[in-house]
Specification:
single chain; 413 residues; alpha+beta; seven-stranded mixed beta sheet; four-stranded antiparallel beta sheet; 8 helices; 25% helix; 28% strand; globular
């Protein structure tokens, strides 16, 4: 008989997901736990497995569509002739299996009080004092967008430059007066998630940036000596694990930087664990993967984990746990790191460090001009929760450990 598979509640306030791509089509025979569809949420891209073995009879959302939690994604004929009891409550749907776990699915669209909007949009509405239920929705499937909220807060009705269609506004693209060739690409998927996250961070945190020059000469020699031993263990050793270790040590001295702000309770949450986010370019844009319990890992173990996460991001196989839960982020472009940058804080964290390229440059040591391996580190800090002194002293502690790796290893012990 037909079995309806509902969009599961993936957690952390997620109320909808964008269909990235189906791995099956109508008429396909699927096995239990066979991957059905790839879904992108505000938090991560996840692969949903089949809760039943059977034949796909109906697919309700196509690639690029937004599917609310609790809506039927796909119908599977499992060959069972026994009927199943209907849902007990209008808002509760049958439990859907995902990776052998039972997930209670809540239909967020059945109640008129539940407006369809992403968590980022809801937070912006709270900050601006705008009531979501009174805003004309212009997004897909009646979704209220961040642009809708901004227009409502500004007092506009969204009619400027657009035409009304029912309750939604459709903005007409501006024409190119000179006739030059243009291409319009929909802002969605990973690029949309990045756009929303960066905008939210800039709107929320009071950014300031501090920069320090680091003499990496001693660490370059340590790394060169350790490369052979690392290779014997299958580890490709670079500088990032050393930088992560130094940062963790600094965070233990300056705990206000390993924190977040609970805006609902107006409490600063000081984290007693060290999950370091690594911001790097993936095939679909900037992605932050999370090295959990970085304080408990060796340099070699950190290197393995950073490589594993990087590979998962490049292959688009990173799990939700791989991409969430960081307490402090490091942004690194490796050899393309440039001289200086002002990285945007990874919301809701307090600070982010930007790692720039190491170059041989002349430096004055003991009155003599010598060639040293120099690198800049920049830190952006949320001035609401930490002062300039905190950010500067934290980076000074990181600098001292990187410039004298012996003290770093003592701190690790």
């Amino acid at each position: 008989m037909p079995f309806d598979f509902y969009m599961p509640d993936i957690g952390e306030g997620v109320v909808e997901g964008e269909i990235v791509g189906w791995k099956v089509k109508v008429g396909d025979t699927v096995k239990l736990d066979q991957p059905l569809v790839e879904v992108m949420t505000d938090k991560a891209t996840v692969e949903l497995p089949s809760p039943r073995a059977g034949v796909i009879t109906k697919i309700n959302f196509k690639d690029g569509d937004i599917c609310p939690v609790g809506k039927v994604l796909v119908t599977i004929d499992d060959g069972n002739t026994k009927s199943e009891p209907p849902p007990v409550h209008a808002h509760a749907q049958p439990k859907a299996a995902a990776a052998a776990q039972q997930i209670q699915v809540i239909d967020a669209t059945q109640s008129r009080d539940r407006v369809l909007a992403t968590p980022a949009t809801r937070k912006l509405a709270r900050q601006l004092g705008v009531e979501l239920g009174r805003i004309p929705a212009t997004g897909k499937h009646g979704r209220v967008t961040t642009e809708d909220v901004k227009r409502a807060q500004a007092g506009g009705n969204g009619n400027g430059g657009g035409q009304a269609h029912g309750n939604a506004m459709v903005t007409l693209p501006a024409k190119n007066p000179l006739g030059y060739a243009e291409e319009r690409v929909p802002l969605r998927g990973m690029r949309k998630r990045i756009s929303d996250a960066m905008s939210r961070s800039v709107r929320t945190a009071a950014h300031f940036t501090y920069v320090e020059e680091i003499d990496m000469t001693e660490l370059v020699m340590v790394r060169d000596r350790a490369k052979a031993r690392a290779a014997e263990r299958g580890v490709k050793l670079n500088y990032l694990p050393f930088i992560v270790k130094a940062i963790v040590s600094g965070l233990k001295k300056w705990p206000q930087l390993n924190a977040s702000l609970d805006e609902q309770t107006q409490e600063i949450v000081l984290k007693k664990y060290y999950h370091i986010g690594i911001a790097a370019q993936g095939p679909h844009g900037l992605v932050v993967s999370t090295v959990r319990d970085a304080d408990m890992r060796s340099i070699f173990d950190l290197s393995r984990e950073i490589d594993r996460l990087g590979e998962a991001v490049r292959n688009n196989t990173a799990t939700r746990d791989d991409l969430t839960g960081s307490t402090f982020t490091v942004s690194s472009l490796g050899k393309l790191g440039g001289v200086l940058a002002t990285p945007i804080i990874n919301f809701p964290e307090v600070a982010i460090v930007g790692v720039h390229k190491i170059e041989e440059k002349p430096a004055v040591r003991s009155g003599q001009i010598v060639i040293r391996h120099l690198m800049n580190l920049s830190i952006s800090v949320d001035h609401r929760l930490a002062d300039g002194y905190d950010g500067a002293m934290f980076l000074q502690d990181v600098k001292s450990l990187l410039e004298d790796p012996t003290t770093m290893f003592m701190e690790m012990i």
